[in-house]
Amino acid sequence: MAGKKPLSALIDDQFGPRAAAYVASAVHSSGPDLAWIAERAERARPQVALDLGSGGGHVSYAIAPYAGRVVACDLSEQMLAAVTETARAKGLDTLETRVCDVRALPLGDASVDFAASRFSAHHWQDLDAALRDCRRVLRPGATAVFADAVSPGTPLLDTHLQAIELLRDPSHVRDYAIEEWVAALQAAGFALQEVKRFRLRIDFKPWIERMQTPPDRQRAIRSLQAQAPQEAATHFDIGEDGSYTLDCAGFEVRAV
Ligand SMILES: C[S@@+](CC[C@H](N)C(=O)[O-])C[C@H]1O[C@@H](n2cnc3c(N)ncnc32)[C@H](O)[C@@H]1O
Hints:
By secondary structure, this protein is an alpha/beta fold. It has helices spanning 7-15, 19-24, 26-29, 32-44, 58-63, 77-89, 127-137, 155-168, 178-187, 204-211, 215-226, 230-235; strands spanning 48-52, 69-74, 95-99, 112-118, 138-149, 190-202, 244-255. The protein has a single domain, classed as Vaccinia Virus protein VP39 (Rossmann fold).
């Protein structure tokens, strides 16, 4: 079809103009998953740490106190400009940014001591290729942590979740199930250390506003929610206003 953009351009269109909203976002700037990642950085005390798909930079800010250097990577130049500005305001001078695709990191083999990624992998075009490149830049024995929304696994719940995610954001690719994550991590050369489950309440209004989802697609989400089978309504605890509870997981792995 003529005039269609590749996924990377769609992601840049979706996130670039919303950089300030992602820096300010309450869901992104706090949460038990962020603290869980920071604890692992504190334990690792890396010389060089990497934040894959940094968005507004909250993982980078959280791990910076424990790292010699943090490299925040993102496809969106505008997002990284906001990260540079915020890091400066926070007095963090060990944070660098790189505009890149996580499938082709501009870093040498075994040059990184710790990698983290949060709420980004569900946009990646090729999870396996991204995990392989992350493994390439990590030194053997280094820790990596990946946290993201996950599919509850059963087809009924999975279809509901991916449908509302795609309606909200056309650059959504997939919330993987925990089993899919574990298989992909192991295939990329990581040994699993821990899987931590989180549940996150998503407030409909800020969720929609942050992504500036157009009204027709907001209505489609509400319509799907209104007609959701009882199993989905209960699992996601769908509220009157469209708010719902999302399954998330963190994976701590070691490069082997
Ligand atoms: C929801 S934001 C990330 C939130 C952030 N990590 C946090 O914890 O607050 C998703 C980010 O992933 C980035 N992204 C998506 N696909 C990417 C890719 N293939 N390579 C690099 N960055 C990517 C987007 O540009 C966007 O800034």
